[in-house]
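Lab notebook page, bench 4
Experiment: in silico fold of construct C2
Operator: M.H.
Input chain length: 229 residues
Purpose: comparison with the prior construct
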Amino acid sequence: MSEYSVGHVAIIPDGNRRWAKGKDKQPWQGHQAGFKSFEAILKRALELDIYCISFWGMSTDNRQKRPAREVLFLFRIFERVFKKALGSPTLKKHDVRINVIGQWRKQFPKRLVHFADKLIHDTRGRKKHMLNLLLCYDGKSEMMRALQKAILAKKRDAAPKEYLYTNNLPPVDLVIRTGGDPHLSAGFMMWDVADAQLHFSKKLWPDFTPDDFERAVQDFLRRERRFGA
């Protein structure tokens, strides 16, 4: 068992495009570098025995407002992630269940939906860790959808949580955002981060290392959490 005791870390990986621009590269090269960072940091999170990791891979605005070529490349990255995860001995060894969260079924090509559904299905029996990929996701739309469902259900004292995409996830303990912009975007997991601690890094996501991630976790563990008391 690890010395760490963090139940749920959520990551907002900002800065891929700025990283690419600063190196005179194309945006897709920034996303490619960001994918490598994702793999390395996920590996470290599992080594630290963090139970639940949520990763915001694409917002609804990213899907709708980015240039078509850039979105197509992101779809290729996601397909690569899904295929690699399906056969990953590391994820199997760590008993990682994978959730894909957001409006991706409406926004993704059918081929990509197929791989995402297969990944969810094939890992559904795993229990030691959870990896949540937030794709075509924004928290404001999620909350509106949950409230509408709660009203339609006509259940007295119904909590919005049970109607969220994240209904089976524990509360977030720590939010890490890279890119130097200290804010949360689009109501990011607003119900789940209500009592979360925040860590903002000035580093752009492709430059954020596993050691940076571990230092953020160490900093979190040194904090006193009062939960509003």
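Observations: The mean pLDDT is 93. Residues 61 and 136 are 8 Å apart (CA to CA).
Next step: discuss at group meeting.
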